[in-house]
Recover the amino acids of this structure.
């Protein structure tokens, strides 16, 4: 549900850019979501649709580049996808695994005219 | 059509306000601890027990976040703490602006320890820095032992994990070793304290940890 407040933050930033750079419409909003950003891309798209209604970004496509979660084995250094979290290292069987990723959410770029 | 590279942090306003809160807390030598958990893990009970043990030692302020009602703040006032209730009326997390607004109503230097009880939610509060000096994730044995790997954001950003309701372990299928392996995976070397607000188990260790946080903020050496 925090996607709604994030969508409001995104629109605030877009509107501030519009004031400074004088564009009239936003076609694409490109975002990067860190693996530990806690973002549900679908919920964020839905929130953007509702928040941006009647604004310069009403028609904007929201592209979200979501970084995958990666798990690293502390014993042998192997890396593996970590979405739900493997029980043990696929390579050496150790359960001493570490999840890594960024918690950031950034607006990478806008396409406007 | 033109492409504008931005590279802007979406949570920028929150993060700037959090940095400002952190500066104010440091100036007032106020130790701020942000408590995260699912609903029903026992955060408020833990704070009531903390009040019994620590209110004569340190001047404690609680900022309590809930979607609705003043109930938690009332409980904590009854336990002898000064408590401010934030009702978010729907919002699922506290943000740095809400904390700044409440801190402006008090003299931060009149307190040693600020305990922020976040909204019961393991997803949304994780990525909102409030300006705290440390963050605690409270889990309980009535939840699944796989919570740390299911909600890694909350555990990854915490400095301490408290596993509460350990008095119920004999009656539950909760696997403590699996839980702790999950915690380690998400955050290497995070200490895990076992507590029970019913029996009082582990509360000394919890208060000793808090005591260390307050002393570190005040620049005092820890107890030997």
């Amino acid at each position: 549900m925090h996607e709604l407040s994030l969508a409001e933050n995104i629109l605030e930033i877009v509107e501030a850019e519009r004031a400074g750079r004088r564009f009239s419409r936003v076609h694409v909003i490109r975002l990067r979501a860190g693996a530990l950003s806690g973002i549900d891309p679908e919920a964020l798209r839905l929130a953007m649709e509702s928040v941006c209604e009647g604004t310069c970004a009403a028609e904007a496509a929201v592209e979200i580049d979501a970084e995958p979660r990666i798990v690293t084995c502390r014993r042998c250094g192997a890396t593996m996808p970590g979405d739900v979290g493997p029980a043990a290292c696929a390579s050496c069987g150790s359960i001493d695994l570490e999840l890594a990723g960024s918690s950031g959410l950034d607006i990478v770029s806008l396409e406007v005219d | 059509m033109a492409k504008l590279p931005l590279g802007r942090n979406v949570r920028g306003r929150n993060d700037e306000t959090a940095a400002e809160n952190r500066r104010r807390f440091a100036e007032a030598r106020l130790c701020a601890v942000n408590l995260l958990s699912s609903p029903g893990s026992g955060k408020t009970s833990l704070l009531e027990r903390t009040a019994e043990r620590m209110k004569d030692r340190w001047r404690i302020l609680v900022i309590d976040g809930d979607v609705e009602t003043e109930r938690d703040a009332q409980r904590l006032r009854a336990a002898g703490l000064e408590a401010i209730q934030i009702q978010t009326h729907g919002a699922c997390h506290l943000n740095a602006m809400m904390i700044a607004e409440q801190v402006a109503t008090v003299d931060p230097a009149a307190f040693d320890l600020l305990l922020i009880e976040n909204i019961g939610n393991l997803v949304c509060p994780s990525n909102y820095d409030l300006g705290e000096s440390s963050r605690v994730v409270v889990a309980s044995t009535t939840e699944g032992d796989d919570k740390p790997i299911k909600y890694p954001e909350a555990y990854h950003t915490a400095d301490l994990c408290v596993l509460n309701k350990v008095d119920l372990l004999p009656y539950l299928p909760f696997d403590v070793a699996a839980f702790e392996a999950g915690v380690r995976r998400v955050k290497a070397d995070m200490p895990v304290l076992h507590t029970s607000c019913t029996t009082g188990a582990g509360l000394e260790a919890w208060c000793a940890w808090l005591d260390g946080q307050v002393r570190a903020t005040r620049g005092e050496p820890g107890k030997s």
